[in-house]
From TrEMBL:
One Gene Ontology term of the molecular function aspect: ATP binding
The name this protein goes by in its record: ATP-binding protein
Keywords associated with the record: ATP-binding, Nucleotide-binding
PANTHER family noted in UniProt: ATPASE AAA-TYPE CORE DOMAIN-CONTAINING PROTEIN, ATPASE-LIKE PROTEIN
Species this chain originates from: Sphaerochaeta halotolerans
């Protein structure tokens, strides 16, 4: 599947944070748009961030990386296991292939840093164990070409079905034994086995050294490679840590550059309260990113551009030459350090290059938690309108600002509910001439949907609680 473009079409979440059950389609069922936009709205603590967390989990799995320990605390308190299922469309010149990938996670004791049994259980940390991985796709050997299991690791063996195992990795005993060890190793290291380097290399080797590779083998291998490429080069997650760094006077820059036909992704943190020393190569990349970003920045914040000021060279710890740099803001023929700009400007700078890529490339998926943080609501609405109408990629975001409800097609908007067993819904009975923002407010007050969207508060009780708290604190 050369030049494949991957897009997430659905996410189903079980027992992650406060989402006991929730399924959300990312497709606009009303109209045909090149861009795929999904804005998720709802009251605080209702499961919006859980959606972004589920996509971060997906990225870690597809990249074969270690699942961070923080996810041990993300499993719902009433369950020992969280299960995530993702559906994709892989688009090529030949057509569209539907694929699903599912896995579960649980919290287990991390004994990797101890070598005695006398350590108390309370002193042993926790880590994530990823298990029961399942990939489904069209099965070519079936005359009806139906969706079926390609890889299912829910077995004491390597994986099932056995015919697909023999097709993907061959039937040599050594390969199977090596991969059984790799499977246990991946489990102990909080990594995906299906997307581990060991398993991928076995499949790649089988394709490469087959005298006459089976058409079915090449097809399945290309599906797996498409998902690997998507996770490593085309899926970006921006969570609230991004805004936290800005508050601490550090400028995050997340970007994608394409050089020589290969997509390069990177993120960089540049301190704002003092000059930073970065490698010369990194400085050249940042300069290129900023130059590209300024084309748009000066249009959305009239007259504003930024630059990277070179304050001289300095030898790095590894002996290489580095550059001492500072980020500078330019406006009205004046330049000031970027640290003196508003947090909203810094937020826009941190994500703008990725928004540019989403606008231009259909293969990119960008998920942003609290997109509206620090961004003027009118500008937010207009940016999203432009991307939805003319963009090509996929943008998934959460927000508290309701302005996009007035600028985006309602097929791009979903809401959280107060029901943990059915966390995500689309509004029904919305007429073409309804203002979705007003309609949402009305439903909060009247509760006209099949699921409650907002847990009502009592203003009198809130006022009384403020007064009681003030008396207790001696105010």
């Amino acid at each position: 599947m050369k030049s494949a473009s991957v897009r997430i079409t659905n996410v189903t979440i079980h027992n992650l944070k406060n989402v006991m059950n929730g399924s959300l389609s990312f497709e606009n069922g009303r109209k045909n748009y090149r861009a795929s936009i999904l804005g998720l709205y709802g009251q605080n603590g209702s499961g919006k961030t859980a959606l972004i967390d589920s996509l971060e989990l997906l990225k870690h799995a597809l990249c074969g990386g270690t699942i961070p320990k923080k996810f041990t605390d993300y499993i719902n308190v009433e369950s020992e296991v969280a299960t995530l299922c993702y559906e994709f469309e892989i688009m090529t010149r030949e057509g569209i292939t539907t694929v699903s990938y599912q896995f579960s996670i649980k919290s287990v004791s991390d004994t990797s840093e101890t070598n005695v049994d006398s350590i108390q259980p309370s002193e042993i940390g926790k880590r994530v164990c990823i298990f029961n991985e399942l990939i489904k796709c069209p099965i070519l050997s079936d005359k009806k070409i139906r969706m079926g299991k390609l890889i299912d690791t829910d077995t004491t063996e390597l994986f099932i079905p056995l015919p697909k195992k023999q097709l993907l990795i061959g039937d040599t005993k050594k390969t199977s034994t090596d991969l059984l060890i790799a499977k246990k190793l991946a489990s102990s290291q909080s990594r995906s086995f299906v997307f581990s380097r060991e398993f991928l290399n076995a499949v790649r080797s089988n394709v490469k050294y087959s005298v006459n590779p089976d058409k079915e083998l090449v097809y399945y291998a290309s599906i797996i490679e498409s998902l690997v490429n998507f996770g490593n080069h085309e899926l970006f997650i921006i969570n609230t840590t991004n805004s936290g760094h800005i508050s601490l006077n550090a400028q995050p820059l997340v970007f994608k550059l394409s050089e020589g036909g290969v997509g390069a992704i990177s993120s960089m943190m540049i301190p704002l309260n003092e000059p930073a020393v970065i490698p010369q190569k990194a400085k050249d990349v940042v300069t290129k990113v900023i130059s590209n970003m300024n084309v748009v920045l000066k249009r959305i914040v009239p007259g504003l551009t930024i630059s990277i000021k070179d304050l001289g060279t300095q030898v790095l710890d590894n002996g290489e030459t580095g550059s001492r740099v500072q980020l500078i803001s330019h406006k009205n023929n004046k330049e000031i350090p970027l640290c003196y700009e508003s947090e909203g400007i810094k937020k826009i700078v941190s994500i703008l290059q990725l928004l540019i890529v989403v606008y231009n490339q259909p293969s990119i998926t960008l998920a942003i938690d609290e997109l509206d943080s620090g961004v003027f609501e009118y500008l937010l609405g207009e940016l999203l309108r432009i991307i939805s109408e003319k963009g090509k990629g996929q943008l998934i975001f959460t927000s508290h600002n309701l302005r996009p409800l007035e600028t985006l097609d309602r097929g791009f908007i979903a809401f959280t509910t107060t029901n943990p067993q059915n966390r995500f819904v689309r509004l029904i009975n919305v007429k073409e001439n309804n203002n979705l923002r007003d309609f949402y407010y009305r439903d909060i007050m009247l509760g006209e949907q099949s699921e409650e969207l907002y847990e009502q508060t009592n203003n009198s009780e809130i006022a009384l609680s403020f007064r009681e708290a003030g008396e207790y604190s001696g105010s």
